Amino acid sequence: MNFNKNSVWANILLMIIISVVLVIIGLVGLNLYTRHGQTTRVPDIAGMQFDEAKQVLKKAHLRAQIVDSVFNKEAKPGAILDISPKAGTVVKPGRYVYITINPLMPPTQAIPNVVDMSARQALALLHSMGFEHVKQKIVPGDFFDLAKGLQDARGQKLMPGTRVPLQSIIYLLVVGYIPPDSLQMGETDRATDSTYQAQNTQDTTVHTADDESWW
After folding, report:
1. Residue 54: in which H helix or E strand, if any?
2. Local confidence band at 17 (pLDDT 50, 70, 90 cut-offs)
3. Global confidence as pTM
4. pLDDT value, residue 6
5. What are the φ/ψ torsions at residue 178 (nearest 5 degrees)?
6. What are phi and psi of 68, to 5 degrees?
């Protein structure tokens, strides 16, 4: 009888000891996993190239991950523009720093077909697609204010579907003359050829009626 009681108490004691050991192991493991008491500071890596920044972060026991790219013509291609958490933030070692970089190549867009659109429609379309530097170039034609196509800065025709950088200067070929302030989009290159002069010259001569019977 006493033997059975001793066995029960021994088992209870053994269970208590095992439970305590498991709790201690769990707490120690949790501290190791969460790096309790350990911190590091996010270094300033703005403007660096990704490979260089990755090494700097590694020395600070941090990891790097690119999450976005935003084109900035003022920054070097591939340069880091922004990070999260911000530089100087105190964080746990081993965490990710999320990076926004300037793309190595400027963004491009496919040239739309603007032939036979009005100048206003063509300009609105081009601006909505992200083309920022659109100028108008006057060309001869039969229908005033009609778009006849697009050219690059070298005077080469841009066919629909051709991809060009959004920062490129492109010329919208328009029949006739459109005052720049009427659209407030882009600039207009006035042609100086005889066709332009003929289209935009008004007859200001005062003609005397041949029939003077009213006298």
Report:
1. helix 50-59
2. confident
3. 0.52
4. 67
5. -115, 120
6. -160, 160
Average pLDDT on 145-157 reads 93
Peptide linkage before 112 cis (omega within 30 of 0): no
Which two tokens mark 66?
């690119």
* Structural tokens at position 124: 């609105």
**Does the bond joining 106 to the residue before it have cis omega, within 30 degrees of 0?**
no
Going 6 to 12 to 16 to 21, the CA torsion angle's sign is positive
∠ CA(192), CA(195), CA(200), 5° rounding?
80
Distance between CA atoms of residues 110 and 51, nearest Å: 31
Cβ pair 118, 146 in contact under 8 A: yes
Report pLDDT digits (tens) over 126-144.
Answer: 999 999 899 999 998 888 8
Q: Looking at residues 57-75, what average pLDDT do you find?
A: 92
Report the pLDDT value the prediction gives residue 215, as an integer from 0 to 100: 34
**27: amino acid identity, one letter:** L
Beta-carbon count within 10 A of 151 CB: 18
Q: How many CA atoms lie within 13 A of 175 on its CB side?
A: 14
